[in-house]
Amino acid sequence: MTKKLLTIILAGMMMMSMPGWAMAAGSGDMLQDQAQEMPQIQIQQRDRVQTQINPVDQEQARIQLRERLQIIDSAKTQMMERLRDQDQTQGQFSDIQYHWAQVQIQSAYHWGLAFGYPDGGYKPDGNITGLEGVVMMTRLMNCLTGIDAGLATNGAIDWDALPDWAKAMSQERNALRIMAQTGYYAEPKLNRYQFGFMLAKALGIEPADLPEGTVVFLDQEMIPAADLGYIQALRTLGLIVGYNGNYDPDRLVTRAEAACMLTRVLDSLGE
Asked: Can you state the angle between helices 102-110 and 73-85, rounded to 10 degrees?
């Protein structure tokens, strides 16, 4: 046996006899370094549990919403007409078959909240602009009675930020109010927080009280603290939901998600 080979064998035997804690020391330091580098929000998420919605509170909130807002008869009539007269191009859309939000997208079309494109598609995974969000919210508000259009004036809107085709529509009272209250009409793309906040304002929902320690979503630090009560109110009503305790407020809202949030409102009022 050569001297070099003997050295290799002896080294291997020493490694096998080394205590487990000694071998783990290096990996422990590595994990500690990774924890130190972990963003503070992720550390907070790891150590928290989302506050659950009390079913009694949820039902009471829904009753109060139904007492204040009702679907107008003309909206119901138009919905039934679209449902009866739908054609495969607009009623079914060419790109929503087997999509997770297929039913909600069809419902949004029947209620006149969202429409498709000339090619017959809906583009469910596409994103919406701030102005498209305003249009959708205005259509929803026009389906309801009990909406306070407010006292917004033209002076509250930056008309230079709007394309010409949108200026006439934006003069409508409901559109004017939602534009003035949120200021998101000029956004090139809306995120989930902005769309949710816009929905709360459109429906005239008051922010929920948040007792100390309330965890609305695990990533709630990404939501402006002043608006967190609005997000909790929507969550209590069941109008917005998250995933694994997170809301992903900075993620761009899709046309499918928008359809879901809007139709949940009408579904809750129809109970």
From this structure: 120
